[in-house]
C-alpha cells in the first residue's frame, strides 16, 4: 500500500511517465493477437470444411438468404432462440442494427402508425454510460436520444416506464443487457421482465437488445440473463424485441458472423427487407464457423480460453487502480464478470481533463463523454477502460498513467 | 435444317417432352459447379494467405472500414478507378446499391435540395428489359420507375435527355452498362458520354452504374466500355455516378467481395454512412482474393477459364434456337459477347404463355415480365434465358422445350 502521495510527488511521477514517450492505445475493445490465435483453426478449416451444407447445398453459390440452417441451429441453440427466428448476416452486427433502425425510420416496423421518420421527433432511450456506436447510429438516423441512468441491475426501469407511458414518440430503447458496455452490468431478471411487460403509448415500441457479450464470461458460473423474447411473448408484446449478437469477439472481429432475431412476425419483417437488399450472406464463413465451434461445449471451451488470456488483464487494471486510487475518494470503477470494459467514474468534472492528461503522456483512451448520447457526460466523470488489447506490461503502464492523470486533475480541481 | 413443322407435330413433340418428367431450372444466372471449382484455391489460400496485410495490419481484427488497401488497389486497377475512390463491402453488391438508394431516400446525396424521400414522387429511369432485382429495390424504396427502351448501343438517350431536362423528380438511372442483363448490350461510347454530359433539372441526379459483368467476356478482344467516372468528370458532373461491381461471378456468389466507387466527394459520402453502420468488412476474404487473383493477368486468365466452360452453353442455346425457331418470324434473340444471359423476344403477347408452357413441361424460366419494372412487359414478349448453370444435355433439352413452347403459343395465337 503506497503512502498517500502529495500533489508534488504525483506531478513528478506523471512527468517521468511523459518522458518515457509512451504510445499506448486503449480506445477500443479489441481482442489481442493471442486471442485471435485461438481461432487459427477457423482459417485452417476453410479447405477442410468444404462447401457443402448438411443438406447438400453448395455454399459457394447464390441463395439461402437467412443464413445456413446449421449455423442458425448452432447460434439459436446458444442464444436460446428458435433457429427459425434467427437471421445471419456478414461481419459486423452493427450493420444489422443500423439496417433495422434505418428501415424503421423509412418504413416503420410492424404496428407502426407511420414511419418513425415521419414522427415529429422520434426518440430512443439510451441507458448511459453506454456504447458510443449505438449513439452514433441514432444521431445519424435522426433519432433523438434520451439518456437513462444505469446501475448494477440495469437501467432505471421506473424512469423508462414513465417516459414510454407518456410519450408516443418514444419508439425504442438500446440495451447491452449482458456485461453492459461499459459498466459490465448484467440486467436483473426484474429489469428484463419489466422492460418486456411495461405498457407503452407507442404501439411500435422496440427493444434493441444488443447481446454483444452473450458468451464472454471472465469467470465460471456466469449470471444468467433472462430471455427478452420469451418475456415479451409472455407479457403479450411478442414483437417488441430485436436481439443482436455476433462472433466478433468469439472468432474474428474482422471476419465474423452477425445475427439478428425476433418474434415470428419480426423475423418475417427482417427477412422481407433483407430479401430485397441481398442475394445472401457469406455462407462459406458460416460453414467454417459451424465446423470450428461445433456446439455449445465447443464454444464454451473456446470462450474459456479467451477468459484465460484476458481475465489477468482485467485483474491487473483493478489492482493498479486499487494501489493508486484506492480509498482516496477520487474514483470508483467496475469489477466486471465478463465483457470488454471497465467503467471508471472520477469525481464530477474531472474525466475530460484526466483523459487529456493521459493522452499528453502517450496513453490514448476513449474520449471522455463518448459513453453518453451526443458525447456529453453531464457530470464529466465517466472513463471507459479497454484492457484486452495491450500486453500486461503495457497495461500496467497505461493504467498507472491514467491513475496519475486522475490524481493530478483531482488535486488541480481541489477534489484532493 | 428441320422442315417447317405443323402445329400437330409441335404439339406431339411438346407432349413427348412433358412425358419425360423434366425438372430443369434456368431462372437465375448462376455459375455452375465446374465454374466454382475454378476458385478452389481461394479456399485453399485461406490458411496460406495468413492474416497480415501488406502494411502489416492484422486482418482478423477491427478496422480498415473502406477495405484492404491492396484489394482496393487490385480492383481499382482492374476497373480503371483510383483505389482511393473505391470502397469494398462484403458479399453481394446489391446490398451496396440498396444502401446507396436507401440513404438517398432518407438523407439525399451531395447536392440534394432535400432527401429523395421528401420529393412528391421521386423517379428512377430503368432501361428495360433490365435486371429484376434493381427494379425490386426501387419499388421497395418507393422510387417510381420509368422504363426506357434499350438497344444494342444501350438505352435511348434522346428519351432520357427529354425526361431529365423536364422533370426535377427524375433522380437517377439504373444501368448495367456492360453485357447488360439480359440483352447483352454494351453501352456505346456515345451513350456513355451522353449520360455523363446531359443537363438534368435535378441537381442531385445519379447514375447507378452496375458493372456486374466487368470481367465476364465470352470471347477475346472484348468491346471496351468508356469510364463513366471519367466522362462525368470531363463533363463537369463529377459526382453523378456510383459504380458497382463484385466478384460474385468471378470467384463465389456465396462468398465474394462487393465494391462501390464514385468521385472523391461521392466516396466521402459513401464512407460517412458506412463509418456509422459498420466496424469493417470481412478483410480476411479480401486478403484471400488478392492472394488468389493476384493481378490483372491473373484475373484475365481466370475469367478465360470461366469462358471456356460457359461459352459452349451460350452457343448451344443459340444453335438450338436457330434450329427450332430460325427464320420463322416467331422470335429473335441476342448473341451476347459476355455476361450471363440471352434475351429472347417472342411475337407480341406470347411470352407469358410460352414460359407457362415450358414450366408445365418441367422447365423453369424467369417469369415473363420480370425483366421490366413492376414485372410488366408492355408487349409481353421478353424471355430471359440463363444458360450457365445447367449441363449441356440439360440445356439442350430445356432450350428445345422453350422453343417448342414458343412455337405452340405462336400457333395458338395465330402468329404462325
Largest interface: A-B, 50 and 50 residues
Biggest sheet architecture of chain A: 8 strands, mixed
Stretches of chain A where pLDDT falls below 50 for ≥5 residues?
none
Apparent shape of chain A: globular
The structural class of chain A is alpha/beta
Question: Which value, in Å, is the CA radius of gyration of chain A?
Answer: 22 Å
3D architecture notes:
The structure is a homodimer. The first copy, chain A, has helices at about 5-20, 35, 40-50, 70-80, 95-105, 130-140, 155-165, 190-195, 230-235, 265-275, 285-295, 295-325, 350-360, 390-410, and strands at about 25, 85-90, 125-130, 145-150, 155, 170-175, 205-210, 240-245, 260, 330-335, 340-345, 365, 380-385. Chain A has about 425 residues and is α/β, with parallel strands linked by helices. An 8-stranded mixed beta sheet of chain A has the order 2-9-8-7-6-3-4-5, sandwiched between helices. Chain A has a 3-stranded antiparallel beta sheet with strand order 10-11-13, with helices on one face. In chain A, helix 12 (about 295-325) crosses helix 14 (about 390-410). The longest helix of chain A has 30 residues, at about 295-325. Chain A is globular and about 70 Å long. Chains A and B meet through helix 3, helix 5, helix 6, helix 10 and helix 11 of A and helix 3, helix 5, helix 6, helix 10 and helix 11 of B.
